[in-house]
Amino acid sequence: MTRPETIIPEKPTSPYPIHTTAPIISGFGRGSSELGIPTANIPINAQLNSLPTGIYYGWCKIHPVSDQNDETRTRPDGQSILFNHGNKLQANELVVHPMVMSIGWNPFYQNKEKAAEIHIMSKFERDFYGAELEFIVLGYVRPELDYTTKEALIEDILTDIRISRDILENKEEYTKYKKELE
Ligand code: RBF
Ligand code: MG
User: Fold this and answer.
1) Mean pLDDT over all residues of the chain?
2) Which residues are catalytic?
């Protein structure tokens, strides 16, 4: 199936903006390793659960949780993950970033549980599991789709990133929400 055209309203319209905060948990570890597109996974809260599954865009900011020590947690697949709660991040990584969010069952991977994950459009030196992610969702890009190849999925995610970055950086009605996180 090919992606439907993305409709971009003049400005964010109800239910957006959705402004919320969630802890960064461990996902399947596929984003970085298999797709080359890392995502920060977050629990599905009632607010996110009320949205249709699909791809969204907005702004985000990472908040380190400084009163927590590093700890190692074991993922369901047996892999151990170091939770540093964002305490290794640099000042230039703690700014407001453009993001794309995927909510759903990842049909390409046939997940059994609904997941929410955010790709932050910046490069990071270190992981930041256990940090808090504050974010504002401003609009919808497309529904979740299934793909016949991994390459086709990657291509569509890169298109999502390009469309979303363009809206967030060039449309004033969307750019201005960046200030709410500063
Ligand atoms: N997974 C799908 O199965 N279908 C999709 O249409 C899809 N779109 C995505 C769009 C974006 C912007 C992102 C960040 C992820 C998307 N994913 C999709 C999820 C992807 O499969 C997931 O990030 C990896 O499996 C790592 O958990
Ligand atoms: Mg992930």
Assistant:
1) 95
2) 117
**pLDDT exceeding 70 applies to what percent of the chain?**
99
Contact 19, 178 (CB under 8 A): no
Ligand 1 center–CA 69 separation, angstroms: 31
CB 18 within 8 A of CB 12: no
Distance between alpha carbon 99 and the CA centroid of its chain, in Å?
6
**57-93 tens-digit pLDDT:** 999 999 999 999 999 999 878 889 999 999 999 999 9
Say if residues 69 and 86 touch (Cβ distance below 8 Å).
no
Length in residues, the chain: 182
* pTM of the model as a whole: 0.96
Q: Which residue lies with its CA nearest to atom 24 of ligand 1?
A: 31
Sequence-ordered list of residues with C-beta below 8 angstroms from that of 175, at least 6 positions apart, any chain: 168, 169
> Which ligand 1 atom minimizes the distance to the CA of 31?
26
With cut-offs at 50, 70 and 90, classify the pLDDT of residue 55.
very high
At 171 the pLDDT is 98
- Note whether 177 and 20 are within 8 A (CB): no
Neighbours of 30 (CB within 10 A): 15
Q: What is the CA radius of gyration of the chain?
A: 16
Half-sphere exposure for 163 (CA within 13 Å, toward CB): 21
CA 135 to chain centre: 9
